[in-house]
Amino acid sequence: MTMRNDRWSVAIAATLLLTGCGGDAESGSGHGKAVALTKEQVREALPDAEAMTGWKESAPPTAVEMDNLYRSQACPIKHDAGCENSRFYGASTFRRDDNAATASFLIVAYDSEQAARQAYDVLWDGYYGKRAGLRAEAFGIGPIGDERDARFGSSGYNGEPGAVTQTRAGTTLLWTETASAKKGGIDEEQVRDLATVLATRAQQVQNGDAPSATLDG
Question: Which of 50, 95, 107, 161 is 20–30 Å from 214 (CA)?
Fold first, then answer.
């Protein structure tokens, strides 16, 4: 069983909901600091147009304070499980015309590393791990973050590819959701690169550095 490609628009819709709302380690290795981020730091950690060489920005990096609405977006599980002790929610989205691909980046920032760690399996097993379809297969994304998972499958009836990654970097949980309307439009290497950029930027911010990770290095 596969998912229609428009299922992947859920993340983009959530990002558009966020747009207009206001605001208050070693890179990507999982060995950096684990400090609670501010709303502005969540926004800065999200990849922007400058970081996404070859992609066009659909919705700019935006962060909001967690409330009941955003918990239901970020943690769409019974009783918003996985959002306990979360502080901020952020997202940005991009597209590519050459391969009809979309990419969404999501961040949930928690008040402690323990809270993020406790939420990890809840959200992967309860929701995000299913986003690439029931027949999606796990694949490796390298030693990024403190925990990581990824699945690659089909997001459309005709075999169009889709993938989801989840990473924990210190006090944050991070997701990439990628799909293409073109068969073969994305591959595991591209997905791995997107997840690495997000995890590295999140760790750089926790380390007190300006996020500098980009797709082109």
Answer: 161
